[in-house]
Amino acid sequence: MAELIGTESDGIESIRKELSELGRSLRSSFRLQGSSHRSISSVSTTKDDINDEYDLQWAVIERLPTFERLRSSLFDKENDGRAVDGKGKKVVDITKLGALERHFLVEKLIRHIANDNLNLLRRIRDRTEKVGVKLPTIEVRYLNLCIQADCEIVQGKPLPTLWNSLKSMLPGIPGMPGSELRKAKISIIKDVSGIIKPGRVTLLLGPPGCGKTSFLKSLSGILSKSLEVTGTISYNGQKLDEFIPQKTSAYISQYDQHIPEMTVRETMDFSARCQGVGSREDIMMEISRREKEAGIVPDPDIDTYMKAIAVKGLKRTLQTDYILRILGLDICADTLVGDPMRRGISGGQKKRLTTAEMIVGPNKALFMDEITNGLDSSTAFQIVSCLQQLAHLTDATILVSLLQPTPETFDLFDDLILMAEGKIVYQGPRDQALKFFEDCGFRCPERKGVADFLQEVISRKDQAQYWQHPELLYSYISNDMFCSKFKESNSGMKLDQELSDTFDRSKSHKNALSLNVYSLSRWELLRACMARELLLMRRNSFLYVFKTVQLIFIASITMTVFLRTRMGIDVFHANYYMGSLFYALVILLVDGIPESALTVARLAVFYKQKELYFYPAWAYAIPASILKLPLSLLESVVWTSLTYYVIGYSPEAGRFFRQLILLFSVHLSSISMYRFLASIFQTVVASTTAGSFAILIVMLFGGFIIPKSSMPAWLKWGFWISPISYGEIGLSVNEFDAPRWKKILSGNTTIGQATLASRGLNFDGYLFWVSVGALLGFTLLFNIGFTLALSFLKPPGSSRAIISREKYLHIHKTEDSHDSIKHGEPKKVSAGPVQSRNGRMVLPFTPLTIVFKDVQYYIDTPVEMRERGFEQKRLQLLSDVTGAFRPGVLTALMGVSGAGKTTLMDVLSGRKTTGYIEGEIKVGGYPKIQETFARICGYCEQTDIHSPQITVKESLIFSAWLRLDPQIDSKRKIEFVNEVLETIELDGIKDSLVGIPGVSGLSTEQRKRLTIAVELVANPSIIFMDEPTTGLDARAAAIVMRAVKNIVDTGRTIVCTIHQPSIDIFEAFDELVLLKTGGRLIYSGPLGHNSTKIIEYFESIPGVPKIKSNYNPATWMLEVTSTSAEAELGIDFALIYRDSAVYKTNKELVKQLSTPPIGSSDLHFSSQFSQNWWGQFKSCLWKQYLSYWRSPSYNLMRTLHTFAASFLFGVLFWNQGKKLNNQQNLFNILGAMYIAVIFLGINNCSSVLQYVAMARTVMYRERFAGMYSSWAFSLAQVVVEIPYILVQVISFVIITYPMIGYFGSAYKIFWYSYVMFCSLLSFNYLGMLLVSLTPNFMVAAILQSAFYTSFNLFAGFLIPKPKIPKWWIWLYYACPTSWALNGILTSQYGDIDKEIMVFGETKTVAAFLKDYFGFHHDQLYVVAIVLTAFPFVLATLFAYCIGHFNFQRR
């Protein structure tokens, strides 16, 4: 490599020398001939000079060897460090272009994205055609393609209850009567055939769930192995197993998975480096060779660009700068991607990054899945326009699925594939699709987008309105019928003909298909992954600094608890030295826990990149392991340096360094173990549970809690497979072999030997190095396991599918009954839109107006703005907004992003938690009072927040029970819920679980309708809706808007903010409120039929361009009123509105509606909430009960964890309960109690965090809606835990009590159960309290570890109460674990008078407990009271904090 680089730099140097020689000879020849050229103008001379210089420079490049010629190019000369056009050129090595030079070149090539990108691609195309080089092309064919999924059928509702989950885990249980139908196959794609041609952009349209994603994944060769695929897919006539499809084509996912700690540029550079340059290098070599032969001098800029993107393995590449530019990401190129925890790029930018990350590579076939979700129409148009240019000018093969393409975007596509129910209804030229449907009898209305029409005409509910023969009877045409009609059509027959002609393989370009699995060599792959891992460690430095500071803090407490001045060199104090060594091991063992969360967080991105063959698993695993070595060294140095001298270990340098080496090895094996477990369990909850269980096992078998000699003989092997055992052996041998422990005791043994023997650790000194070797062996083993798990396990989320028996039978019935549909009874319909039944709502309500006058809203100026020179203390977001919303009128609230739409809605609905509001707001003519207003107002938020573990119908019942008048009886409430389900078209999915967005449950569109239904069921008079159609496809948006229209028709007042509506959606509104940047009003009034009023108003303003025929009025209106349009025209639309007749009419209306109607009265309710306190609590408890029963990941996992741990305790401490001969026997028993209390508690506390954090988010929304008080929610949350903890305690007692062999009296069993119950409650409520005190789950998780360390140290096991220094004794009393151990040990043994040997003297068990531990049997009642007080205090604090701390900022 070094030689190569040397050759390159020598080559470039030789060019420079030749050029300077040529320059000298040129200058002398110019001097000789100067006199004969005086007449020519100086400008022309300069140009000629530069052109001559080009030719000379190029001639020198041409004489270079091939390798150097491909890396040398002509670049603009610099002036003050910046390249300047027109100053002449210089020869550069394109692998060494700096960031500024790359930026300058891209700026020069692409100033205006739309035109210049087209020009650049044309110039590249012209260059290749001039020398006759053909670009590789790919034709993708699929023949009789079928995809099937295996799914499991469950009886009743397909809900993941604890019982259903347990049945699926235990294969013996399912074989019960009536469950014979267990597994079934469901068809996703049903027998489709077709061709996707190069040089054309194809649009894939279809409703959600029709199989688009599976189709795209199967074509790109990355479909999950769990799905069964039949039929053939071929690229240029070659089947997928004959080449590497992942390196030939690229699948762009609809999910944005990126590493949040990397910037946009870093993400793309890494992707470009891993994907390589494909055939670009060979093509460039061929072009260069042919140009040299033909004597053609290329355009220097194009030559530089083409050479720069053809060099592989570069850390920074010009292709990244180019893609950033054309996708509009250059403005955020150096911004972190971010996530909910880290501020980063916007959702729309993330969506574009997902596309950019893949198209930065060399792949010639692109399969793109919903790449414009969440983007505004102009950005979507720009992206598709770039793709069109890419296809037409580089002969790429592009298939794009979109949800809601606007007419102008739709027109950019060449071909169209229309899918429904897993079948292809139409495929062929886009412009012939309408003709096909017209031949079937359906016509697209004039003011209707073609894409919207195509999606609705194949839907059973929407088809009838497009029937074009009113004189003929209409009958529903199924998708099967459309498929057969398509096969008979010209397009269908032409496609069949093309499919029957096999592809001529000889025409396939040699570089078209990739045969290499990876683009880089093994060493390059490792370097790339190593560089990224190092970058991520730098970005996560806060975490490592925090961990180190935490370790320093814990070390400070530890060394002041085990202070050297309080510990002697004798048998008695040797125990405390042992305790401090064991505690060091525990701390370094649990210090690795964050590694598990970090690994899990990156798994999704790893599996995505591994699937796309960016790099193999080992290239990811090796850097992740090696780069953690310095961290382990740092942690062990910090701990040993701080504690070694202060605790008072043997004062010898050799022993200090040996302890350091051993702790380093322990930490290294610990983080390797967590990484390994995270790679196997793959989710936060599962890997947390696995991690805590692993700690439990390695600590139980570690030889301190129970010595090896006391373990059952058949379990002694466990001691040798626990990493902690080797830590224990190494540390104790290192310390107790020191000269100061050599003092001889009676029985001819030294203090050190006696101590080691009592713990079963009497090993020779050489075992220290054996222990270090064993720990490093464990590290190696865990890392090999980590690599193998990454290589062979499936990615997370690819879990089994479950379906209810009813739904499965319904699918089959539908498939079997297509014939009966075909011959069904025709029915006469009108050609107009289908009207849903307009039934009156079951419950009466009061129609109300809301009037607002001169509303202003300010916030404190953000610090960032002040730093940039903004001087005012307040920033105004709404300015003099006046208007009225009336019953039965559907109002749209529109404006550009940041105009204040959501702000105005939040102000009117009383949802703002910060800022200053001025102006008048009246409801029904009376001043608005927030407490009463919340009872008659509904607010549908843009983010659909619902409890994930309850069904659609249960969500509505919960809302109805808490918000409807208590006088209404249950029967009418249920009728009303059913009425709403029907109105919002949710009755078909009423028994489906809501689920977690993007993971499980309802689709985006169903979730959106549920949000509306939950508010509507409260029977409000006024409803605010924030972006009800964002992220929906055309049909879903139509369903939502139809539901909204149904509600308005009942006489309610509805206001919707809306972003980029289609013509249909926009014209469904009656009135419009339009805001401009700064929250100023520029129109408030009627829309008019076909938007005539709004068009007339804006067209009457001088300079505003007229709207084009059939153009979307919403898009036109936003374009003509944009900030740039205002600047161009030199007008202020807000001032024009103030002088208009519309404003005067609006003002008059506001004045009229501001006075209450005669005979009306102000809103009044006797209480703040609809239900009394008991009713609120009952409803919350009902919902929590259902959620808990359906949360196996939380409740089943912790119950199974308790079962497994209890069984392990029972086996390991078998019959130790009554075996009382010396102090070690009692220490063993205390060890069993200590580990049970600590570890079952920690597992409960850790697993409750995420659950309560999710429940809190839902609680914020429901409390804002006035459903219940926070006390009702928190009490229900506290109470619902009790039965599950009881189950844990009962199973723990039933398993461990007889196995360990405690004393069999009812009194002692009661105490054992009572202490365990109180202890687990305390841990659970502590977890809840931590969530209520912190803004999110991650902060709560970090905070909990501080509690665990003190609960561990001050439990009274490692150092008993009498020995704790007085300055720390308060912490002992503040720990629930110390009281739990006191209660559990004293109740068992505090009344036992058997005599035992204690450190060489005889004592009764009861006396030893008093003297050594400070536990008094006669004070048990105090322990009982304190144990009850802990959960009570923690639960009360949780209830208070969740009510008073609001981390949701609005």
TrEMBL record:
Residues 168-446, 850-1102 form the ABC transporter domain. Its main location: membrane. InterPro entries: AAA+_ATPase, ABC2_TM, ABC_transporter-like_ATP-bd, ABCG_dom, ABCG_PDR_1, ABCG_PDR_2, P-loop_NTPase, PDR_assoc. Belongs to the ABC transporter superfamily. ABCG family. PDR (TC 3.A.1.205) subfamily. Keywords: ATP-binding, Membrane, Nucleotide-binding, Repeat, Transmembrane, Transmembrane helix, Transport. It comes from the Eukaryota. The chain crosses the membrane at residues 542-563, 575-593, 613-639, 660-678, 684-706, 766-793, 1196-1214, 1226-1251, 1271-1297, 1309-1331, 1337-1360, 1367-1385, 1420-1442. This is Pleiotropic drug resistance protein 3-like isoform X1. It is found in: Membrane. The keyword Repeat applies. It is a multi-pass membrane protein.
